Model the fold of this input.
Amino acid sequence: MLSFPKNFLWGAATAAHQVEGQNFDNDWWDWEQTPGHIKNGDSSRVANDWWNGRFIEDFDRAQSLGHNAHRLSVEWSRLEPREGEWDNAAVARYREMLTALRERNIEPMVTLVHFTHPRWFMEKGGWLADNSPQILERHATRVVETFGDLCNVWITINEPNLYMVLNYVWKTRPPGTGSLTQGLRVARNIIIGHYRAYAAIHHLQSNAQVSLAHQWRWIAPAKKNSLLDRVVAWQSNYLTNEMFVRALTTGRMPTPLGRGEKIGDGKMPLDYFALNYYFQNRVTFDISRPGSVFARQLHSTWLKGTPFEEFSDAGDLAPDTFYQLLKMLARINLPIYITENGTFDIGYDNQSPYLVTHLRALHRAMQEGVKINGYYWWTLVDNFEWDAGYWLRFGLYHLDVETQTRTKRPVADTYAQIIRDNGIADELMKRFGV
Ligand code: BGC
Done:
């Protein structure tokens, strides 16, 4: 048995727009209205129907699996549908959600911005606007004033690195216009906003634990002995990982986000490192892709022959890379929370081996001194997977969107067993070939 420390946090992660349904006042809802933007014409209109109260039954499910932690987000466009107008009904709903988690002894972690923004915010330019950092600071203040009695673990923003690339460089997500230069401006403003929000939250709540969730896409050269592949891999890794981590750990704005100038008070605005990790990517030099700094991602080999073959961005399964990454992040000297990890179902129980091998890697890193406090599987119940609609399904439970029926997947039992044992049994490792 590979045991975990007492009080280790085990849970799942969700995001408002992906589970609530009826989220009609944000940029994603608007984006969904254009045919072709969402796979199979799917829509977030119902999603997991949490806004009608189905969060209760899903929190019961989480409890039945032994979860003692849950990461969720509060939808900014519900709380503040028009600038300066705070909606009391939405506040009441979120208070019910957070209370329902507490009643089940599930510790909430709340994200303030998980990919969606109020329509009014985007009309003002979104993160391109010079005053966007101040707007986030104001929002964070209001959220913590309103929910601070129910939560003290916060994530200001989810994955600004992916937001920069997907929304402004590749333009596959809203607003779907932009350039690398605009993407960098967006990233810069988000980082400044995070510094301000961090300070504002700590000013209000003495025991606050604040971070920003970074999805680390480990980028490796497709051919190790190709200099060009190594250069594009280094460059992509710098722009999507290193640059962000530097900006968040050194108190200074790195090139090309800035010229090394101090950000805020220059102190590291993180109380823990929030790591989202899924796959490893391999890139090769491609002259026809100047917009992506000449990097082309290779197709994922594990999806060959599955219905997901065309989903080329997924990357490769690489638990060893997860281990290496955790060892590398130890240099930051902060406790780490795995705020997202998981894989989608490809037609058989491929999720259990993913879970077991990644937890095995995590355990190994912990044995070697890396401090990790918790693990959140993405996600509890299949949900609205952004541009992939309901095509990619990451849930511990399968969802039938029409009937709203949930069906437990084998991975839910695997996870429940690990949580019950607070460790990985030898039998599980044997079964999943670790
Ligand atoms: C996001 C989630 C998303 C998940 C799986 C992460 O980038 O934070 O919202 O559903 O990946 O694709």
Summary: Residues 241 and 278 are 14 Å apart (CA to CA). The longest strand covers residues 107-113.
